[in-house]
Amino acid sequence: MSEPVVSPPADSAAPETSKLARLGRSAAYAIVLALLALFVAPGPVSRALGTFIVISALLLGWEVYIALGQATGGALPLTDFPWKMPHWQAIAEQLLQPARRNGPELLVAILAKAGWVTWREAIVGFLAGSLLGFALGTLFAHSQLLERSLLPYAVASQTVPILALAPMIVSALGAGWVPVAVISAYLTFFPVTVNTLRGLLSPEPMALDLMRSYAAPRWAVLWKLRVPAALPYIFTALKVSATGSVVGAIVGELPSSRSDGLAAAILRASGNYASEPEKLWAAIVMASLVGILFFAAIALLERGVMRSRPADES
């Protein structure tokens, strides 16, 4: 009798390898489309299509990373257990599900309300820190004595961990939104100070001599020459500080016992990370969106202000 033919065992990694190959081909197509968007399409279309391609590439890279981790048996970080790094489709679906089982509100609505609360605290700190930074930069630009004596302390203030300062600020000012705004301002003022100082000192010496030859007072030199020349530097600092203020607000909400901000949402989601990791990732996505939208708002403001400048000031 002939021996029965034993079929070889199925390769369990074959589906993952096939999926990885498909994702790789899609990534190649995305790169080609990105190149076409950058070099072929008109300006506005190129920017919009480029943004879409970048977001698509990031989401695709997310899935490629998960597939690589599964194909290598969880050798990559966050891929040894499926719940550590869920698929982005699962995160998007979780946003459109009720926050609690059979609850009335969707998770995205709750996170949007928490993001609004955090953004209000961040913008108060952003405005206060920006005004303080501009004032300090102006003083340092007009007085080398103040610059040499106070600027080192401003630099030293940024070396202290904000997690160490936050509880002390909350203890001094009490619970509520005020200490959160102060912590946000703390992370905002330093970039504005440094860039304002750099920008106010950027005009050419010949332009300063010309203003002095007309006996222009200091305030006229400041507002008619120094500030217009410093605007690109200041807006660069404001864009950096916009995202920093959101981070400061989230950090400040932790010791201040704020229950309606993004920090509380992140803490609640982290407690159930093993069972519902999508909720934590959804909260992180919402916090990122708040910072991105704040950055975009400052960028739009910069575009409007810079376009309104006279041609000889550009």
Number of strands: 0
CATH fold naming of the largest domain: MetI-like fold
Q: Largest sheet, if any?
A: none
Shape: globular
- Sketch the topology as an H/E string, one letter per element: HHHHHHHHHHH
Mean pLDDT: 84
Distance between the termini: 93 Å
Oligomer: single chain
Percentage of β-strand residues: under 5%
CATH architectural name of the largest domain: Orthogonal Bundle
Task: Tell me the structural class.
Answer: mainly alpha
CATH superfamily of the largest domain: MetI-like
Q: What is the CATH level 1 assignment of the largest domain?
A: Mainly Alpha
Helical fraction equals over 70%
Based on CA atoms alone, the radius of gyration comes out at 26 Å
Give the helix tally.
11
Q: How many domains make up the coordinates? A: 2
Account of the protein in words:
This protein is mostly helical and 314 residues long. It folds into two domains: 14-80; 107-313, MetI-like fold (Orthogonal Bundle). It is 75% helix and 0% strand. The protein contains eleven helices and no strands. The longest helix is centred in the middle third of the chain and has 36 residues, at 107-142. The protein is globular.
